[in-house]
Amino acid sequence: MRAMVYRGPYKVRTEEKDIPRIEHPNDAIVKVTRAAICGSDLHLYHGMMPDTRIGHTFGHEFIGIVHEVGSSVQNLRVGDRVMVPFNVYCGSCYFCARGLYSNCHNVNPNATAVGGIYGYSHTTGGYDGGQAEFVRVPFADVGPQVIPDWMDEEDALMCTDALSTGYFGAQLGDITPGDTVVVLGAGPVGLFAAKSSWLMGAGRVIVIDHLEYRLEKARTFAHAETRNFLEHDDIVVEMKKTTDYLGADVVIDAVGAEADGNLIQHITSAKFKLQGGSPVALNWAIDGVRKGGTISVMGAYGPLFSAVKFGDALNKGLTLRMNQAPVKRQWPRLFEHIRNGYLTPSDIITHRIPLEHIAEGYHIFSSKLDDCIKPVIIPSES
């Protein structure tokens, strides 16, 4: 089969790999029909995440058709059209029993924190991802779900991570009616977090970024106010000014490890790997939220130290909530919103790229070329 293969920072290409095989009776092999490049894939692409090994195939957002099932699989049949959450999880451990699918205790021997994630380095279990023609799906009776007949396949694709994560980010904000919500980052997760904030009762939603084409999308797709942090001497001061000098009720960090805005922080994290990620966005959140407010962190950070203003968070009495999204837990409500027309997730897709051109796709997305917001990979039309 053809698959995206990592060859080192900023080096990916399409190569031949063996079609994955059934390794456990509850595995399925899925023929991928659509995959996506996620903003967090760029952290791998840029060499930010530890233990990203040569030969690894990325891609934690994918849908496809069941090609083969193991002998104990009961819920899927060959030919089913399925959507697969980015979490690999067993469904029965202490954490899965509590809905914490992203913290499954049985799928990642390399960590005591995060569970398994498709295509996201050996830090999250070393599972090959879906930017390929085929992918092995463990615990096939637990994670994948047959795509409803009424759902567009690209809407389903967005549910496998970006939409579910953005929605989860708004959930973690504990938004109450009338709250002012600030979203840091106008990438796909930030856009979905902003849109979801309205569904949870926000009275005002403000999105902060520095790329005008993404801010325009925040205005048209998420119906949010926007601020370009490059146009302000101090974006935290602007956040205070626009909220009667109190600060926002909720701030959602949808940026993560490679935040711009502070050259020293960016260089020490993104270039020299001295931090688990640039803490710029998180520190803006701590400074810009009101006392007693809530910060929701959806941006991906590495496991290393980051220079976060924890003392300020303590003294302001802030609530910080964060996790990798337990994707399937969000689906019942999201399916309702999509079916009722409140959400059309595929509206954020800007590029559709053949698998053979995936290196160019990563370059376009990483370099923010051609107003790229969300690229979708098409492994095969057959």
UniProtKB/TrEMBL annotation:
Alcohol dehydrogenase-like N-terminal domain location: 25-142
One GO MF term: oxidoreductase activity
Taxonomy, superkingdom: Bacteria
Family: Belongs to the zinc-containing alcohol dehydrogenase family.
Protein name: Glutathione-dependent formaldehyde dehydrogenase
SUPFAM superfamilies: GroES-like (SSF50129), NAD(P)-binding Rossmann-fold domains (SSF51735)
Cofactor(s) named in the record: Zn(2+)
Keywords: Metal-binding, Oxidoreductase, Zinc
Family matches, as Pfam families: ADH_N, ADH_zinc_N
CDD domains recorded: FDH_like_1
Positions of the Alcohol dehydrogenase-like C-terminal domain: 188-259
